[in-house]
Structure formats: C-alpha cells, structure tokens
Specification:
Helix content is 5%, strand content 49%. By secondary structure, it is mainly β. It starts with 19 loop residues before the first strand and ends with a strand.
Length: 302
C-alpha cells in the first residue's frame, strides 16, 4: 500500500535501541571510514549478502538506499513519502530491510527510503558500490565519536557511556529529526542544521540572507559561485568569509561560508538559517549524542 505523509517533514518511523545490536560484553565499537570529497564513507552489508558503501548524513531524517544500486523488487515496499531537501522535494519509496551491518554493529528490521540520489555519492574504483546514506536511524541509536584525523568512528554502547572530558559543548534540538544548533552569525542568531552530508561547511540559506542583509557586506570582489546539492536537487551560492561565528562554547573567526542564492526547499525556510558540514566539522574530533542532545568539539590533537 501507499501512505503519503505531510511534505513539510522528512521523518522515517523511529524505533528503540533494541534494533541496534552490539557484540556481547563491549562498551564501544570502532568502525573505519574514508573521507572522500567531503563525505564520510563506511562499508555495510545489507540483509547479510550485499556489500555496499554508505556515507553518513545527519541531514537525512532516516537511512536511504540508492535505487540505482538495488533491483526494483529487492525489498518489500511498505509506503511512500515526500522528502524535503536543500534544493526542493522528491518522492521517496519506503522499503523494509532485515539487517544493515556496519562493522560489528547490526541494525535490525529497518524501514528505509529508496530514491534516485541523482549523482549524490559515487562508485569508487576497487570499492563496493555506493548504496546510499546513513541518517537519523543510525546516528541517533548511540553516541558516536567522529575522528576525522584517524578516519575512525567510535560508537559507544548507551548503557555504560560517559561523555569524554575536554570537549566544547554545543547543545542542539531536533528539527525534522536533524540536529539543529543555535549560532550567532553577523550579530543575528539562527538555527543551523548539523549536516554530515554537507561536504562544503557553513552554508547560509537564502531566507537568512534576506533576514540579515549585513551578510552581503562580506561578499568580496573575488567571491566564487559554488553549486551544492542533495535530496531535491542542486542550488548555487556565493562564497564569503564571516568574521565571527558563535555556537555554544565554540567561537570561530574568519569562517568560510556559502550564501545560497535561491529559495527552493530548505534554502527558503524561515525556520532554518543554514547548515554546517564537514569542511568545518573536520577540524575537530566531534561527538554527537542524540540522547543528551549535545555535540562536543575536541581539538584535533587532544
């Protein structure tokens, strides 16, 4: 059957920690990754038989399979919904998987989206084929440390986890199942999504540029036009440098950013000012804890 939900949200059905299986008697699991073109890629096995590559995407409100990587009838269809991305909207088929194994972790009985990802991700020579993205339904199940320098994820068992000391804390709330932090940019506060699927860095939406015209003062004569994209399509922006950015305990100076020029999809939302991706995040080790709703930034050499 088909069940179409409100197009203003992008939220897959959620379950509890019981659907994430750790090996017996361990407090954490380490998973290697590759950072390629600004995306964090991990290998995964689908239903115990298909080896593919996913990249992490906290901007996705669920796990998503690339329709190009799987046969049309490979998974049972359980519904449909509309996904809202930075560039617009796309229709998503919802399918059921028995298991998704990432390293020594296994996600059981998952409802995932299946969509043509339109050039998002890439097949890499000598690597498993690109299979999709891992979003909220993986990242929210347990605290995860992302060590960009050593290309390693550490996934902590929630039952005995203690926050490592020394990080700069930035609280977040969930909007459409995506972490959103409050940031002060050019003297105006707004909500910015933490988006591991954003390879660029700090992106400021067109709605925020209209709300805060002072942002245009940072456009220099040598500013470049850059195209970014995701679910819903691609959109252009102009490069700028922001003198000061404040997020919780984290303060940044002369931060590169992209001012989006069009207002489709999330770029035109009055509720979300922009998003923050790997170009910024990768200067740190970061720990994302959905249970406590906090992101901790650790200096790379700590």
């Amino acid at each position: 059957f088909d069940s179409v939900v409100n197009p203003e949200i992008f939220s897959f059905p959620t379950t509890t920690m019981r659907d994430l299986r750790f090996p017996p008697d361990v407090s954490y699991v380490k998973i290697p990754f590759e950072l390629i073109s600004g995306h964090i890629y991990v290998d995964a096995v689908i239903n115990g038989r298909r080896l593919v590559r996913f990249f992490l995407d906290s901007g996705a409100s669920g796990n998503i399979l690339s329709s190009k990587a799987f046969a049309e009838d490979e998974f049972p269809i359980v519904g449909t919904m509309t996904a809202r991305g930075v560039g617009g909207y796309s229709e998503v088929v919802l399918v059921k998987t028995d298991s998704i194994q990432i390293g020594d972790l296994t996600l059981l009985d998952q409802v995932v989206g299946k969509i043509d990802l339109m050039g998002i991700g890439a097949n890499q020579k000598g690597k498993p084929p690109f299979g999709g993205v891992l979003g909220f339904d993986f990242l929210s199940r347990a605290p995860i440390m992302i060590d960009y320098k050593n290309s390693e994820l550490t996934v902590y068992h929630p039952n005995n986890f203690l926050l490592p000391e020394g990080g700069l804390a930035v609280p977040f709330e969930l909007l459409m199942q995506v972490p959103a932090v409050e940031a002060d940019i050019a003297g105006m506060k707004g909500k910015y999504l933490i988006d591991l699927g954003n390879a660029y860095g700090l992106i400021i939406h067109n709605s925020e540029v209209n709300r805060n015209p002072a942002l245009k003062d940072f456009i220099s004569d040598d500013a470049r036009l850059v195209t970014v994209g995701g679910v819903g399509g691609k959109i252009r922006g102009r490069t700028v440098t922001i003198p000061r950015v404040e997020m919780g305990e984290l303060i940044l100076s002369n931060e590169p950013a992209l001012l989006l020029e069009a207002a489709e999809g999330l770029a035109g939302s009055s509720d979300i000012s922009g998003n923050i991706g790997n170009r910024l995040l990768s200067r740190y080790r970061i720990l994302i804890d959905y249970g406590r709703q906090v992101i901790l930034f650790y200096l790379e050499n700590n």
